[in-house]
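Friendly challenge for the regulars: who can give me the structure tokens for this chain first? No prize, just bragging rights.
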Amino acid sequence: MFRPIKHVKVSDEIVDQIRNLISQGKLKPGDRLLPERELIREFDVSRPSLREALNSLMTMGFLEVKGKRTFVKSVASESMQNPLSLIIKADTQKIFDLIEVRKAIETWGAYHAAQRATEEDINQLKNIIEEMKKAFESGRSWEKQDADFHLGIAQATHNTIQTHVMSTIYDLLRESMARVLKSDRSRVKKLLDQHHKIFNAIKNHSPDKAREKTLEHLNYVESEVKASTGHRE
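First reply, four minutes later:
Bragging rights claimed.
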């Protein structure tokens, strides 16, 4: 009737805690873990146990090291991002496939973000828009903030899968927008105005309006990509 109680390794318990936090969306792609010394104190474990756990999580694809710091990794990044990037670079017309997928994912993402966004989410989106505006007005690169805005909306859905999928195509968003709109200030200004409309709909918790404004934005992006690439129907 009964089974022997198995001893659970300390490192396995650490793995389970961190993995559960990622699954619950409390640790998001790109989040930086505390320094090793602080993690040892938080978990109340030895350095070897912590390092064994972190190495296991890196092997599983949940974490990655950049420089001397450890970050949460998009769980789909290696399996999708590099092949997608190669496909688009090999055939620039495939960027329209990406936009089509974005319409499907991001319109509903904005809808759910408008329903679920917390004050913290809204403040984060507001700060990103302000940073993008400052970068644009000072002549600096704004593509990172543009991608951050769309990723921030995904995070505001509090849907872990949505967040990881958007994180996976994050670099593709930056590359595609840079190619299309980089040299035209009037088009970037319009992009900013569209972001404001999406943001206001999310801030006002208006799901249908958020979805509508996101679709308008992506239709505009699609039309500009077509114009810049000479694409014909």
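Residues 151 and 166 are 6 Å apart (CA to CA). The longest helix spans residues 207-229. Your move, everyone else.
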